[in-house]
């Protein structure tokens, strides 16, 4: 049996910090599982009119930019992006558009994955954004996991949380005002990371 830790990649793009907060909470859930290690990574920004007018607050993250080989060697993936017009962010999509070599080699086939997001309003497109992030994962042959209703907070949370994955309201995108995650959202994100790590660890033993 391998003594190497089960490595879970928590890959995110965060403009004003809420998706980053979710990523941190998911990482805590991952590391609550014995023998599991969370690797927090972000994606490179791309030049756009929007980013020139309202640049990303780089103080929100000190995590390294993802390298393709880190995806190859991970045992599981949690993928997060803020809602951009009901879709994943341009920076996140640009990253996945450049993973053809991994698709050709089948490097991600049968690895478990989950998604998470944040939006500026309760009905701002959280679920469509989560679905948009699932699409490249399915094409890579990953086993995409949701967040089951056995989590009590999924029934009552008002700030975020969907059966597709953890989510949160992020605040005012015009004035760039983020908000802290409430207790229910933190609990759901932690549970999602814990569930992903548990499944990834079991699969690693079987392989």
UniProtKB/TrEMBL annotation:
Gene Ontology terms, MF aspect: electron transfer activity; FMN binding; NAD(P)H dehydrogenase (quinone) activity
Named cofactor requirement(s): FMN
Organism domain of life: Bacteria
PROSITE patterns named among the record's database cross-references: FLAVODOXIN (PS00201), FLAVODOXIN_LIKE (PS50902)
The EC number(s) this enzyme carries: 1.6.5.2
GO cellular component, one term: membrane
Domain Flavodoxin-like stretches: 8-189
Protein name, entry field: NAD(P)H:quinone oxidoreductase
Organism: Vibrio algicola
Higher taxonomy: Bacteria, Pseudomonadati, Pseudomonadota, Gammaproteobacteria, Vibrionales
